[in-house]
Specification:
The chain is globular. About 70% of the residues lie in helices and about 5% in strands. Helix 4 packs across helix 7, helix 4 packs antiparallel against helix 9 and helix 5 packs antiparallel against helix 8. Strand 2 and strand 3 form a beta hairpin. A 3-stranded antiparallel sheet has the order 1-3-2. The protein starts with 6 loop residues before the first helix and ends in an 18-residue tail after the last helix. The chain is built from 9 helices and 3 strands; from the N terminus they run H-E-H-H-E-E-H-H-H-H-H-H. The chain is mainly alpha-helical. The longest helix is centred in the middle third of the chain and has 25 residues.
Amino acid sequence: MPPVRGTAKTVAYEDLKRAILTLERKPGSALEETELCERYGLSRTPLREVLQQLAGEGYVSLQLNRGARVSDMSHYTLRDFFLAAPLIYSAILRLAAQNATPQQIGDLKAAQEDFRAAMASGDVTARALTNDRFHRITGLMAGNSYLLASLDRLLIDHTRIGMTFFRQKGGATDERLSLACRQHDDMIAAIEQGDEDRAAELALEHWALSRDQIELFVMPAGLEAPLGQPPKLKSA
């Protein structure tokens, strides 16, 4: 879905997305219309159009008589996230290797350079956002509207909880961060070579690299089934 039109609306749309992805706007927190109208210089009608678009993309939830809130991250949604992520990511990379255009490969390489620069800078926010951009381009490469919608929704939560992965203190080690960057390079090579099996394999390796680290920060107490594994059905 293209961004909403109009300078102030576009600024509000992009700024709210960034704030949600970087946890500046906390999951489940209220989005007060009065505050947002003042911040972005918008009246209520265009602001609501922005919020409706963000809701359609999964960043915001709209509830009758409760207004807009940042999409929550409950243990239910996170369980679903861990179950779906490897399936979607591997399918996306497989199709990306089949369908990527030279222009898209160039865009992916440019995104990787931005990611590499963010890794060198130590800026956690830049790392998370450039990683998000890299993976969204692979979704465009896949050229499948159903998978792209699923990927876009997954990446909202992946970027939010991935802020922990890119944090040096308490996050991944330098070795893991360097490996993540090399895996991006390997993905680009596999896509450029049209090696769909290797691309899908790399997607799973890349997911596994961050999965355990992220799980340390999001595993809720009392959750019986490990994240990423379906719960076993109990016999009657």
